Amino acid sequence: MIKPTLIASFFFILIATHAQQSSNRLPNGFVYVKDIIPHLEVDLRYCGHHNFIGKPIQGYLEPQTILTKKATEALANVEKELNKNNMGLKIFDAYRPQSAVNHFVKWASDLKDTLGKSEFYPTEDKRFLFKRGYIASKSGHSRGSTVDLTIIMLDSKKEIDMGSPFDFLGEKSGHSFANLSTQQLKNRKTLKSVMEKHGFRAYSKEWWHYTLNNEPFKDKYFDFPVQ
């Protein structure tokens, strides 16, 4: 009879080996987030059509979430703390290759391409998306320690109400926007507090956008594909 401890050890070795093989596909210092936080919810919008451009984004070949190991370990601490209150994280975007950023820039220059306007930027003139800080030629995401995310309830897997959806380009997505319900303000504060507690800083215009304070590649932008 095979002992349960031997079976458990065997599966642990299999999981560890798979994680090591997966990580070997990435530059040194990067990991697949779900190798470290396997129960994390993911909705990688730029792999599909449900985003502000309305099309899959260049550089996103598979719906994989990639971050630096340091950022992922910090995020695991966030997840662990939220789990105590029947909450967890859902990631919309993590590492973003420079080719994807270039796609955004090219899209922004085509003023006739407004496929996603009604849902994602109904009150904004596309000509001013750069000026207002919603589009840029360089992104912290390409350094590997920036993540777009929200909180979900573990039992239902539903997102809590943040007052605006992910990637809504407009004033109400900003941290200073106060015309929200008491619960929406509380929900944003919950996310911001737990992210800051574990070493992340917020971006003022987007409630979902956080960057690790002591990111390992603060001056380097990567362009390997998401796969």
TrEMBL record:
Needed cofactors: Zn(2+)
An annotated Gene Ontology molecular function: D-Ala-D-Ala dipeptidase activity
Pfam families from the UniProt entry: Peptidase_M15
Details of cofactor binding: Binds 1 zinc ion per subunit.
Reaction equation(s) it catalyzes: D-alanyl-D-alanine + H2O = 2 D-alanine
Protein origin, superkingdom: Bacteria
Residues the record lists as binding Zn(2+): 141, 148, 209
Active site location: 206 (proton donor/acceptor)
Sorted UniProt keywords: Cell wall biogenesis/degradation, Dipeptidase, Hydrolase, Metal-binding, Metalloprotease, Protease, Zinc
Enzyme Commission code(s) on record: 3.4.13.22
Main enzyme class: hydrolase
UniProt KW Zinc keyword: yes
GO BP term, example: proteolysis
Transition state stabilizer, annotated site positions: 96
General function of this protein: Catalyzes hydrolysis of the D-alanyl-D-alanine dipeptide.
Family under the similarity heading: Belongs to the peptidase M15D family.
The protein's name: D-alanyl-D-alanine dipeptidase
